[in-house]
């Protein structure tokens, strides 16, 4: 089986001249993006609804590079494949907009906000020399590189990017792996949260991502930034510090997510997660001038707390890591999962009067527990009662459930047959 695997965060150590060329190549990419976008927008204003297309735009790119006009012939100094990759990205952005996958059409890129990067997509134009810790890039020659891990397979493309602190190189490779059979046969469900990032039915709790120190420092520098004269030396120093803090926050989130998902996917064959519409959940509550919103500041804080946890990225990493390991990730709605009693099945909003407290109000029940743990149990029950869950149970899979009353894992303390164990899990106690 062929998979596409990325090897990121390989540190580049370019010379001063090489770094200057890298920034020029990134500027050429931004120029091509903006010029192609302006052409498409001009065609649309003239009433031409059909896009020119990336292949016709590549022909115009050749004319721009070979034209003696000084306003565009500087593009000849940049690698041609890097400029062509920009056109692919531009028209991919158009297609995502037409399919409703992004809200706004492609926008012009500003120098102060655009990402500093370029991509080389032709394997014949670059070479990686791991023993000598260097990489050959088009029109740059050999650049010192500190590889963070061994590059497997055949590289298809490389991307050079400035992440706010250093130059990094990412390689996309095709790797051949054997068809995997997951070593486990258990099914587990998880419930997303803010105080707890994820709570799983087997008792595993993923703590929230803590970047409070970095966010406080970022707020401090942002307050200093408003008092600086724009584009002055002191203004640029503060902007660099904010950029480094942004990069640090992103690295912390990425590192914690990778560490957890890499270990957890080895323990369970099927992982069930909540199908959340994060974009709608984090929409602004500001409203309009005619109909202003309420509790806008509180909602903004909740939105930041939700986005800080990176639920979507955690699910994305679990998906591809489970597919490589021979496992499966399923999604289902989390609606009312924290309001349903796992003991008697009674569902009511009164069962959850606080953020983490759950207590069944049914007169003959009185079950109590943590709301996130209750939601994870209900998520698992819901999946096991579905057609796919029944089929998995019949094929030999078993549920991994933590007992809410005793705190012990049923999967580790009880030796039951898979279908009997799942039936006990799905029926009210």
Describe the protein's architecture and organization.
This protein is an alpha+beta fold. The protein has two domains: 2-176, no CATH class; 185-204 and 269-429, no CATH class. It has twelve helices and 15 strands. It has helices at residues 16-45, 54-66, 80-98, 212-225, 233-264, 278-281, 296-309, 311-325, 371-384, 387-394, 410-413, 418-426; strands spanning 2-13, 117-120, 127-129, 134-137, 141-146, 154-162, 167-176, 186-192, 198-200, 205-206, 270-274, 328-332, 357-359, 368-370, 398-399. The strands form three sheets. The protein has a seven-stranded antiparallel beta sheet with strand order 2-6-7-1-5-4-3. Strands 8, 9, 10, 11, 12 and 15 form a six-stranded mixed beta sheet that branches. Strand 13 and strand 14 (368-370) form a beta hairpin. Helix 1 crosses helix 3 (80-98), helix 2 runs antiparallel to helix 3 (80-98) and helix 4 (212-225) runs antiparallel to helix 5. The chain starts with a strand and ends with a helix. The model is unreliable at 405-429 (pLDDT under 50).
Rg, Å, rounded: 26 Å
Strand arrangement, major sheet: 2-6-7-1-5-4-3
The termini sit apart by 44 Å
Domain count, please report it: 2
The main pleated sheet reads as: 7 strands, antiparallel
Work out the helicity level. Answer: 40-55%
pLDDT averaged over residues: 89
Structural class: alpha+beta
Topology order in helix (H) and strand (E) letters: EHHHEEEEEEEEEHHEHHHEEEHHEHH
Instruction: List low-confidence stretches.
Output: 405-429
Globally, the shape reads globular
Approximate strand percentage: 15-25%
């Amino acid at each position: 089986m062929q998979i596409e695997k990325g090897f990121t965060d390989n540190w580049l150590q370019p010379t001063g001249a090489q770094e200057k060329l890298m920034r020029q190549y990134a500027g050429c990419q931004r120029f091509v993006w903006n010029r192609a976008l302006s052409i498409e927008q001009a065609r649309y204003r003239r009433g031409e609804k059909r896009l020119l297309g990336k292949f016709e735009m590549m022909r115009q790119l050749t004319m721009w590079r070979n034209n003696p006009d000084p306003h565009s012939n500087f593009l000849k100094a940049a690698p041609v494949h890097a400029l062509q990759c920009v056109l692919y990205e531009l028209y991919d952005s158009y297609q995502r907009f037409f399919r409703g996958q992004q809200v706004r059409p492609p926008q012009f890129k500003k120098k102060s906000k655009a990402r500093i990067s370029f991509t080389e997509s032709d394997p014949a134009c670059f070479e990686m020399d791991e023993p000598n810790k260097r990489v050959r890039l088009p029109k740059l020659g050999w650049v010192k590189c500190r590889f963070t891990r061994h590059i497997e397979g055949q590289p298809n493309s490389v991307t050079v990017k400035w992440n706010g602190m250093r130059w990094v190189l990412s390689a996309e490779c095709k790797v051949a792996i054997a068809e995997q059979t997951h070593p486990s046969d258990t099914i587990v469900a998880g419930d997303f949260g803010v105080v707890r990032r994820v709570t799983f039915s087997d008792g595993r709790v993923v703590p929230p991502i803590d970047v409070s120190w970095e966010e406080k420092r970022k707020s401090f520098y942002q307050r200093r930034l408003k008092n600086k004269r724009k584009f002055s030396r002191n203004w640029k120093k503060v902007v660099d510090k904010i950029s480094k803090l942004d990069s640090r926050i992103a690295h912390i989130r990425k590192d914690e997510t990778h560490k957890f998902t890499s270990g957890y996917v080895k323990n369970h064959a099927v992982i069930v997660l909540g199908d959340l519409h994060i974009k709608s959940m984090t929409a602004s509550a500001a409203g309009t001038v005619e109909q202003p919103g309420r509790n806008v500041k509180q909602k903004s804080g909740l939105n930041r707390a939700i986005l800080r946890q990176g639920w979507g990225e955690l699910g994305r990493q679990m998906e591809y890591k489970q597919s490589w390991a021979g496992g499966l990730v399923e999604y289902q709605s989390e609606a009312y999962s924290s309001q349903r009693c796992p003991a008697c099945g009674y569902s009511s909003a009164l069962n959850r009067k606080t953020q983490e407290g759950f207590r069944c109000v049914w007169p003959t029940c009185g079950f109590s527990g943590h709301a996130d743990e209750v939601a994870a149990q209900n998520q698992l029950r819901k999946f096991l009662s579905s057609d796919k869950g029944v089929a998995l149970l019949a094929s030999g899979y078993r549920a991994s459930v933590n007992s809410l009353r005793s705190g012990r894992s049923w999967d580790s303390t009880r030796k039951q047959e898979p279908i009997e164990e799942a039936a006990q899990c799905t029926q009210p106690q």
